[in-house]
Amino acid sequence: MRRHIDARYNGWGSERIEGMSLSTRIGVKVWIDADAAPRDVKEITFRAGKRLELPVVMVANRSLQAPRGNPFVSAVRVDGGPDVADRYIADTASPGDVAITADIPLAAALVERGVLVIDPRGEEYTAENVAERLSVRDFMDSLRGAGVETGGARPFGDRDKHAFAAALDRVLTRAARSRSGG
Predict the structure, then answer these.
(1) 139: CATH
(2) Residue 124: beta bridge partners?
């Protein structure tokens, strides 16, 4: 089998082995914590899943529609309640899979299990940074609990969309290399 770079879509390079999709070859799944994921993030991920023939699983506590014409995207509806979708992803994702979430406690649990995790703004959570991010999140939560106005996240924009697309490409490439032994 011959390796080559497939850069047909938006200049994103992704390693492929001729005649085999990443999914068939290495079993990578992409998980989206879909309750709060921006539409642009989902659409970029759907296109990457279709292009690379990777299963993309959206998980939410509300009904979601998978895009028409993309057999690689599915939706899982979980019961309502705090962190039910997060628990489903944490319990179901496998080491080497890719997850997209802004939920830092979920990211911490997934990183601990060997899942590659990025947030919708393109930041990757790693074993080196997730504990710090969790501490800052907990500190900010305690400030809000004490009545301190901490502000919110800036609106999701084009810069975030491009950063996310680049991060998704990086982690999918790393997942492919990791699972194929390269």
Answers:
(1) 3.40.50
(2) 118
| Under 8 Å between Cβ of 101 and 108 | no
Pick from 62, 48, 49, 54: nearest CA to 12? 48
What would the DSSP string read from start to end of 22-33?
A: HHHHH---EEEE
Question: Which uninterrupted H or E stretch holds 159?
Answer: helix 158-179
Tokens of residue 36, six digits: 């709060």
Write the burial class of residue 59 (CB in 10 Å: 0-12 exposed, 13-18 middle, 19+ buried).
buried
Number of domains, the chain: 1
What's the pLDDT tens digit per position in 118-136? 999 999 999 887 677 766 6
| Boundaries of domain holding 29 | 3-179
| Tens-place pLDDT, residues 70-127 | 999 999 999 888 789 999 999 999 999 999 999 889 999 999 999 999 999 999 999 8
Residue 75: what are its φ and ψ, rounded to 5°?
-125, 140
